[in-house]
Amino acid sequence: MTGPATNREQPQIEIDRLIHEPARLIIMANLYVVDEADFVYLTQQTGLTHGNINTHMARLQAGNYVAVEKMFVGNRPRTVYRITEEGRMALQQYRQQVGNLLADIDTPAPTESRT
Amino acid sequence: MTNPPELKELEQRTYGATYSDGVIDIFVGVSLAWIGAMWLMFPDYLSGAVALVAVSISPVMGRRKRFVEARTGYVKFTEPRRRRERRIYTTAGFLFAGFMLLARPLGSLQSGDIDWPVGPDSLITWLLALIAVALGVFVEAKRMFAYAATLAATGAIAVMVDTRFGWPLLVSGAVIMMVGWVLMTRFVNRRPRIEAP
Predict the structure, then answer these.
(1) CATH at residue A56
(2) Averaged over A24-43, what is the pLDDT?
(3) Is residue B35 in some structural domain?
(4) Which residue of A has its CA nearest to B66?
(5) A51-95 pLDDT per residue, tens
């Protein structure tokens, strides 16, 4: 038997919190539709600041959702980001989870009969 | 693996945005105007004018890449998208070159006794209009339809007014070049150069 305390520790709805954060979701969505993109591109597409992107990228990289490659093009440094296969699967799974969660949102919640 | 529709839309919008710089439009406009002007003034050198356009494609595209990437950043689209793009541009390039190389022989034929109802330049502009329509469909750039309409219209006007060969290309090229200039000005204003940290 599980009590309320146990319920709090193990939520019934599983949502990938690494992707769930809006800024990270936007970054993941933008990387999902291309092969690879650099820092400037992501800044333009997401509207996030350099600091924001750096912070979120570090977390996505730690979760192995995004691979980073640093290179030089001519004399200029370029940081290229690529979504990993794991990240791709995670985003698809996240979409399914949220879809399932919100699938019945139009259905009125059942009301208890007081008779 | 299929993309959810919202992501597909995001990819299409992103892809479209990478071609909003106007450089290609200016290049195509200048090329058409140049070919049209050469056809008007030095028809014997028409093939040379087309060849000059062909050899300038690669350096212009290289410079465009640097110009755009400094403002929008570097992005590599998926392999199916790139393959499709290569196929479309190669086909369009070959058709363009083929039509232009046909122009001079067609013009020579017309200098004979037969009274042709339509000039070769009108025919060429209509064929180019078809390429523009195809590009509009496949590259998802709606302004291509406007270019197609311009080419078709100038070709038709040349038939009605009976101008010298080359005018439709010169006028269409000037129109496309102006649109490209407007696009490029907007692009530069909206997207300043960004330095990566």
Answers:
(1) 1.10.10.10
(2) 92
(3) yes
(4) A73
(5) 999 999 999 999 999 999 998 887 888 899 999 999 999 999 998
Rounded-to-integer distance, Cα A82 and Cα A72, Å: 17
Kindly report, residue by residue over B26-58, the tens digit of the pLDDT. Answer: 999 999 999 999 988 888 888 888 889 889 988
Range of the domain at B47: 5-190
3-state helix, strand, coil in chain B (%, to 5): 80, 0, 20
Give the tokens for residue B17. Answer: 């945005």
CA distance B180 to chain A (A): 22
Helices (H), chain A: 4-9, 17-20, 22-32, 39-46, 50-62, 85-102
Q: Which residue has the tokens 């996030």?
A: A48
Query: What ipTM goes with this model?
Result: 0.75
Chosen for mutation from B6, B8, B10, B75 (greatest number of chain A CBs closer than 10 Å) is B75
Total domains present in chain B: 1
Query: Does residue A56 form part of some domain?
Result: yes
